[in-house]
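Deliverable D5.2: sample structural annotation.
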Amino acid sequence: MTYVIGAGCIDVTDRSCVEVCPVDCIYEGKRKLYIQPDECVDCGACEPVCPENAIFYAPRAPISETAHLDDAKVFFYDTLAGQSVELGMPGGARDVDPLGVDTPMVRDWA
């Protein structure tokens, strides 16, 4: 399992979670932050510092937020496919600039 950043982060991107993540697995899209599910070590450091209460441990996420877990996979495995982004190991986000793209779900979010 992993942590997931939900709808409360869209157009907020506070980045408090990025500062405390020990493995740098939180990447910045255009409108939202995303947790890379293969890099996340489930430490939970990000959850209590989120001022929007937008981060959830996937098994405890409210039903209204579970679509964001699948959406994170879409972000990393479909949206970023073909872009030169180094992913797949802890510390991956440390040297990656904001990516400037989002998934269709987040891009079209009202």
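Annotation notes: Strands lie at 3-5, 26-28, 33-35, 55-57. The mean pLDDT is 89.
The annotation will be released with the project's public dataset once the embargo ends.
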